[in-house]
């Protein structure tokens, strides 16, 4: 009788599996990374197909009302209404941006009567307590456990039975069953899988903190993002503002954004984010400045677009833009050059957004085009004018979503004029609204 196989070799770099040891991993090409590992099915004593049965979809009840309020309105907005039970939330961000602070504040403010377990593999209990004191958190219902060993964490979970688990961070999880080297791809995948399985079986929720690479993406295997239900990215500008975005959300929209301010008492919600990205000026605007009314999820923000054009220093022009995609800037510049005969191909283009917020919504394109045109000819746009619209390659100004809401927000902030695409039936019903059909009519209205 053939002997049952109990061991395999797994690459500690990419997670590739081989039946026997090789000097070089055939998947990623790294040398001496294949580590002998016990097969999960043998270690756990489970055989494929040994239990479980299917149920008709019609007999399954939807888990309505199974959310837990985090106690922080901006986080609930990004999550789609609160923390979903039996879900896993992966939080990534640069070092020192406030990931641990956010989780500790959520642990203190969550609207639940159950216990909350905060697992730290990077700090001691005393260090966590020092941060809690600085934030003014009492933490009577918060349990602290400082270890990254998976077996110890699972034992604590069975003893405490928490409603919310917070693990800081996923890179510190390790177990002997996944290899002898901690922090590897296989360690992260194995540890995350065990924790996710536990919360789904016990009607709890899991927060996983993840490190990021120098490119700003979550470090480790991409499989980790597929395993979780929600992926949140914590970002910051040059000041104290913090932006929380969802890159993936199975239970809500990925268009929402949470805006916070970091201070001595931790993260606080920005009460009026509409004014956060506007620069107060008296008198005329400088050339290259335009105000865009853009959508971020369910709310409208007015942001200042700043553009600068200078003759190219080399044989080829370049685009420098961190807050707006460089490809979008190049496309808008090409539209201006084609339909307005404005020479931009021999100029370097610099684009910035006041406040450092990243804008991905198409409604920013018309304001971006106006800012580039203003910077190139050295003439300023009219004051108190908000702009929204999408530009087509034919130079047309296309309609954007929720235009009445953009107009209402701009007027509430003191803007007297609004320029954007509107149906002819509404053009004469709204004072101060300038309806445009193409980029040529926009320039005629603004600069003549």
Report on this model:
26% of the residues lie in helices and 25% in strands. It is globular and about 80 Å long. It is α/β, with parallel strands linked by helices and 448 residues long. The strands form 5 sheets. A 9-stranded mixed β-sheet has the order 8-7-9-10-6-11-12-13-14, sandwiched between helices. Strands 17-18-16-15-19-22-23 form a 7-stranded mixed β-sheet. It folds into 3 domains: 32 residues, no CATH class; 205 residues, P-loop containing nucleotide triphosphate hydrolases (Rossmann fold, 3-Layer(aba) Sandwich), CATH 3.40.50; 159 residues, Ribosomal Protein S5, domain 2. About 2% of the residues have low confidence.
Features:
448 residues, alpha/beta, Rossmann fold, Ribosomal Protein S5, domain 2, 7-stranded mixed sheet, 23 strands, globular
Strand adjacency order, main sheet = 8-7-9-10-6-11-12-13-14
Shape: globular
Structural class: alpha/beta
Strand content: 25-35%
Helix content: 25-40%
Are there runs of 5+ residues with pLDDT below 50, and where?
A: 42-48
Integer average pLDDT: 87
Put simply, the count of helices is: 12
Question: Major β-sheet, in short?
Answer: 9 strands, mixed
In the CATH scheme, the class of the largest domain would be Alpha Beta
Query: CATH H-level name of the largest domain... which superfamily?
Result: P-loop containing nucleotide triphosphate hydrolases
In CATH, the topology of the largest domain is named Rossmann fold
Terminal-residue CA separation: 91 Å
CATH architecture of the largest domain: 3-Layer(aba) Sandwich
Instruction: Give me the Rg, rounded.
Output: 27 Å
Number of domains: 3
How many strand segments?
23
């Amino acid at each position: 009788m053939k002997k049952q196989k109990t061991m395999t070799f797994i690459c500690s770099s990419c997670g590739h599996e081989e039946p026997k040891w090789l000097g070089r991993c055939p998947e990623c090409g790294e040398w001496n990374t294949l580590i002998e590992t016990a097969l999960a099915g043998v270690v756990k004593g489970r055989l494929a197909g040994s239990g479980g049965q299917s149920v008709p979809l019609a007999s399954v009840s939807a888990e309505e009302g199974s959310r837990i309020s985090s106690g922080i309105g901006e986080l609930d907005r990004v999550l789609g209404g609160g923390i979903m039970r039996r879900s896993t939330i992966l939080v990534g961000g640069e070092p020192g941006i406030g990931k641990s602070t956010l989780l500790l504040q959520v642990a203190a403010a969550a609207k639940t009567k159950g216990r909350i377990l905060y697992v730290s593999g990077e700090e001691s209990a005393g260090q966590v307590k020092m941060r809690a004191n600085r934030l003014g958190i009492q933490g009577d219902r918060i349990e602290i456990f400082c270890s990254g060993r998976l077996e110890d964490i699972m034992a604590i979970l069975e003893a405490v039975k928490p409603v919310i688990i917070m693990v800081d961070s996923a890179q510190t999880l390790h177990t002997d069953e996944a290899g002898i080297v901690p922090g590897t791809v296989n360690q992260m995948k194995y540890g995350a899988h065990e924790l996710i399985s536990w919360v789904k079986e016990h009607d709890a929720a899991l927060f996983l903190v993840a490190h990021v690479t120098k490119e700003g993406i979550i470090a480790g295997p991409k499989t980790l993002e597929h395993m979780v239900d929600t992926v949140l990215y914590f970002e910051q500008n040059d000041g104290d503002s913090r932006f929380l975005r969802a890159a993936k959300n199975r239970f809500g929209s990925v268009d929402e954004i949470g805006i916070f301010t970091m201070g001595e008492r931790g993260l606080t919600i920005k009460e009026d984010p509409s004014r956060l990205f506007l620069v107060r000026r008296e008198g005329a605007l400088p050339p290259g400045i335009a105000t865009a009314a853009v959508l971020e999820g369910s709310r409208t923000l007015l942001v200042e677009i700043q553009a600068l054009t200078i003759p190219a220093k080399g044989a080829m022009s370049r685009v420098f833009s961190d807050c707006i995609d460089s490809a979008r800037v190049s496309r808008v510049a090409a539209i201006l050059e084609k339909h307005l005969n404005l020479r931009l191909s021999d100029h370097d283009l610099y684009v910035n957004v006041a406040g450092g917020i990243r804008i991905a919504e198409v409604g920013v394109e018309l304001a971006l085009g106006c800012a580039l045109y203003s910077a190139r000819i050295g003439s300023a746009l009219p004051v108190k004018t908000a702009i929204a619209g999408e530009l087509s390659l034919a130079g047309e100004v296309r309609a954007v979503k929720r235009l009445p809401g953009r107009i209402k927000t701009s007027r509430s902030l003191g803007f007297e004029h609004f320029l954007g695409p509107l149906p002819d039936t509404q053009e004469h019903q709204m004072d101060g609204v300038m309806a445009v059909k193409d980029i040529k009519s926009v320039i005629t209205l603004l600069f003549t």
